[in-house]
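Notes from the 1:1 (GR / supervisor)

We went over the backlog. Supervisor wanted to see one worked example end to end before approving the batch request, so GR pasted a single chain during the call. The sequence is below; no edits were made to it. Supervisor asked that the structure be written out right there so they could see what the output format looks like.
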Amino acid sequence: MARPKTPILSRPAIRRAALSLIDRDGLDGLSMRKLAQELDVRAASLYSHYRTKEELLIEVADEVTEGIDVSGFGGGDWRGGLTAWARSYRDAITAHPNLLPVIAAGPGRREEALRRADAIHGGLVGAGWPPRYATMIGASTKYLILGSATSSFARGFDDDVRVYRDRYPNLSQAHRLAEHAAEIDEDSFELALSAFLDGLTGVYERVRSAPED
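Structure output shown during the call:
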């Protein structure tokens, strides 16, 4: 059989192409016209699968974040649940940093995001955290994750030793930070997460031992 002149489109193929375009050109680089060019089709063909770019972005974000792990919240181990969630959430963002504004936005009506939020909040409350604390813990953990995933402390230093050698004696090794940025950033995230969870453990003990009104 002769090959069709027009490529056969599918929603998964459109999402893959859109994510590739976002990874390469940034979120602002995605338009339905440009995506159609990437797929060698007319823009009108895309609209038969996705009514708007926003609808497409939601599904792309859902696909990227489907590996975020909230399964640990089901057994009462709130610390283990937060650890798995934080690590997998950070992994999803660092794999596709240009998609951050969509991934990190509030869940709105996104089914996948709401499912995770429900599991996290329910798991924390089920483990004994008051609902107000559960809400604040979810927010605080997200702040930690986003800060770690969106900025690099180590990459902020110049790799020229002359910048620091004479004027900043306490930064005599700062020129080496960029070279080891990935390791430093990963270890720094783990340190921050561990310290955060240790602090929450103390709060948890106080909350649980407080007399009820």
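Supervisor's comment: The chain has a mean pLDDT of 91.
Batch request approved.
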